[in-house]
Amino acid sequence: MSHGGSALTLRGLAKRFGDTVAVAGIDLDVPEGSFYGLLGPNGAGKTTTLSMAVGLLRPDAGQVKVLGVDMWADPVEAKRRLGALPDGVRLFDRLSGPELLAYTGLLRGMDPDTIDRRAAELLDVLDLTSAGRTLVVDYSAGMRKKIGLACALLHAPRLLVLDEPFEAVDPVSAALIRDILTRFVAGGGTVIFSSHVMEVVERLCSHVAILDRGVIRAEGTLDQVRGGRTLEETFVEVVGGRTATGEELSWL
Amino acid sequence: MAVTAGAGGRATAAGQAGGSPGPDRVRPVALRHFARLRLRITANGFRGRPYRVGLFVVGLLVGLFLSANGFLLFAVGAAVDRQTQLLIMALGGATLVVGSVLLPLVWFGIDDTLDPARFALLPISRGRLVCGLLVASALGVPAIAVLLATSGLLVPAARHGGPAGMAVQAIGVLLGLALCLAAGRAVTSALATVLRSRRARDLAWVVIALVAALVGPLQLLVVSAAAQADWDRVASVARVIGWTPLGAPYTVGLEMADGRPWAAAAKLAVTVVALAGLLWWWSRTLESAMTGATSAAPTRTRGAVGRATASLLPRALPWLRPTPGGAIVAREVRYLWRDAKRRSNMIMVVVIGLFLPVLMLGLGLTGGGTGAGPTVTVGRPDAATPLVVLLMMLFIGAFVASTLANQFGYDGTAYGTHLVVGVPGRVELRARAVAYSVYLLPLLLVVGAVVAVVRGSPTMLPAIWGVLLAAYGAGVAVNLVVSVVAAYPLPDTSNPFALGSGDAVAKSALALGALVLASAAAAPVAVTAAMLGRWSWLVLPVGAGYGLGLAALGVLVGGGLVDQRAPELLAAVTPGR
């Protein structure tokens, strides 16, 4: 099985909702062992793209390959290699943290002893053990992201697809998540995540792609994309932002 | 990941209050703003979704058909004598009011186009909000159907009471509609608050037990009353009902026709007071709905956790294996208990499953062994009564299975977890059917035993159980497929009775269709059972096998559908589409 060192390959991926084109044909290669940041303003199509990549949303056209396996032709095999943390999708939040981990592990057909061992370890590392039997619905936003990440990591995938893993997360939890992801990449895994927080992407990522209005505007290694400037300057230029003149909103 | 299409309808609608003269002067929110907001949301919901327009049209047609029947019934009052007229108006009106309270609880759910929680941040007084929501709810299909049906009252009022009578009755019709709407909202809102807290659910079970226990004495009362069938006495009951809010708004025309305007005025006053009381009650419970009191009851926290897998699989179900299927059964069993929406659905099914058969037996419709009540006989008398009992069991079995009809809607976007993992469709559906059966099968067996005992014919028990199991299996099969092809999102509110905007009637029609189909599929078993006579015990193994076979077929067909269209299923149950 050869997949040319690409952990996630998107080819001509497209999706439209009614008259709105959400994703207009995307080609993307996420190299194995890379820490890949998918940047874009709100509504750029990040969530739509990642939803199609993990099998939540059927693309109108195009192909997704996870470590060489076609997601929409052989979903079972592709999903086995992949861990995902979707955004805007609820967890089964009437379960407690340990129950949710056990549920995810059993759904994946894992051995119960392995699940118990890894769940205890993940809960410990992510500082969720103290939550005990609290239902996930009563967790804070940061805790929810952490338990979601634990579910994605439980079966030790080689590729992690994370949608907005740092949104609404407090600095302490964010540092913890960053640390775990860095270790995951150092151990040979691949991470692709979406964000619009430049500092996080600049600090973590080896590769970056900028998505705007359903099209990739720039991609490559971090240094290639920013070309000597800060990432934020590059981003605003590529996306084309608007700056306030100081005249408007005077009544404020 | 939010699989949303295009711009949200609510955002557009929020612009309704626009055009304010300036930031400093604030105009009060007129009631028409609520009405326009509701219409705009409904219209936006149709945009680019032809199937929704179709559902709406179906709902509209059903509503029109029912309201035409109601109109004729009320209008007939113009041609019959006063006493019959009183009976029709008082009892018909009371049925409408009681129905508008009970139906949302057990079957229809309540239209939640304007979710009170959305207004929490706006500076609107609670009184105005309640009035606004009431006006908005009057624009739905059920409300319009009730209005059309009750406007039949204007015909006798005009004929016997002249223009003045008609005018007073018109006020009565409008007040009656407001009463129906306010009653339905107030009760669902209050009950939602009650059923939400984890302690209250235990209370709910106690209430159910009490109601079930009360049914016994009640049925004796009804049977003896019906046996005497004294129309004068019934009319006097109707006269009393006519003075309660249940019948008052519908009988004012009659009072005018009899030349008693003071009585008409008093009845209108009774209605207004009741309406005000209901609105006040509603506004009390609205507070908790607005502040989203879902998190009001804290969960059991802390405590020893132990092994993760052991904590998921309930100890009460030792036969569950640590497999994907076992995990889904365990999760669903816990969810039926922990999730307010599933729980209220389940409680209502239990109430109906116990209540209906006992009530019907009590009314003597099925001809009790030695009872003095009226006996319905079809064809050969010796075969007919068991047949009616078995047909009723057929209905109960199929009805109970309809809890599965929107099982994916209850999951909402959490179903995405199964997609990310890739759960095979057959494993998915089989596990869900097993989880529901953990609760429903014992219920059915108890219902069957109660019916056999109440009817005084324990020898019929195997046949009754056989028919129940066959009908339940057929219901599971039909509803598993329905749950995949006709899933719809439930709004993300704290009201477990809330249904999405607009097409509540059509969704109910669909559920009714599933019920009829399932009953038809199991009907041969019931008919055979009635004909077998003393060999009827054979029906137990045959019915159980038949039901199991059909359920397996449903898993097979539905599972294939899940595999084919899982992403579309997720999109269908994602709220806000």
Overview of this protein structure:
Chain A is α/β, with parallel strands linked by helices. Chain A has helices at residues 46-54, 75-80, 97-107, 112-125, 141-153, 171-186, 198-204, 222-226, 231-239; strands spanning 6-17, 20-31, 35-39, 61-66, 69-70, 82-85, 159-163, 190-195, 207-212, 215-221. In chain A, the strands form two sheets. Chain A has a six-stranded mixed sheet with strand order 6-7-8-3-9-10, sandwiched between helices. A four-stranded antiparallel sheet of chain A has the order 2-1-4-5. The longest helix of chain A has 16 residues, at 171-186. The mean pLDDT of chain A is 90. Chain B has 577 residues and is an all-alpha fold. Helix content of chain B is 73%, strand content 1%. Chain B has 21 helices and two strands. Chain B has a two-stranded parallel ribbon. In chain B, helix 4 (82-108) crosses helix 9, helix 13 (324-338) crosses helix 14 and helix 15 packs antiparallel against helix 18. Residues 1-22, 293-302 and 365-384 of chain B have low confidence and may be disordered.
Sequence-ordered SSE layout with sheet pairings:
The complex is a heterodimer of chains A (252) and B (577).
Chain A (H helix, E strand, L loop, with lengths): L5 E12 L2 E12 L3 E5 L6 H9 L6 E6 L2 E2 L4 H6 L1 E4 L11 H11 L4 H14 L15 H13 L5 E5 L7 H16 L3 E6 L2 H7 L2 E6 L2 E7 H5 L4 H9 L13
Parallel strand pairs in A: 3-8, 3-9, 6-7, 7-8
Antiparallel strand pairs in A: 1-2, 1-4, 4-5, 9-10
Chain B lengths: L8 H6 L16 H16 L3 H26 L6 H27 L1 E2 L14 H12 L3 H10 L3 H43 L1 H31 L2 H13 L4 H10 L3 H30 L17 H5 L11 H15 L1 H23 L18 H21 L5 H5 L4 H6 L3 H31 L5 H25 L12 E2 L4 H29 L6 H35 L4
Parallel strand pairs in B: 1-2
